[in-house]
Amino acid sequence: SIACGLALVFGASRLRRMRSVGAWLIAAAGGGILLLNALWSVLVAVGWLFTPLPFAQCALATVASALAIMSFAPTRRADAARSRLGSSGLDLGL
Prior knowledge:
It is a single chain. With about 90 residues, the chain is mostly helical. Helices cover about 80% and strands about 0% of the residues. The chain contains four helices and no strands. The chain is rod-shaped, with a radius of gyration of 17 Å. It starts with a helix and ends in a 7-residue tail after the last helix.
């Protein structure tokens, strides 16, 4: 779970700069967090122990993944524009 959280932080830093790898990383890490917490919730429910934290994390991971999926197209357009600018000799370090 810590590795998924670190992947979310790294993906957010890449997404902030409109890199498409950030969107893919956030979507994958959010999906991983969702699956792990859903499995944990089932295992905890079988043991008759209730905690609301995994359910909240599932909801937040779903929102993060959905927002990352929505940013696929804009980040691809930004990557294409960045490559066009780079091929024309105007590399701004973006």
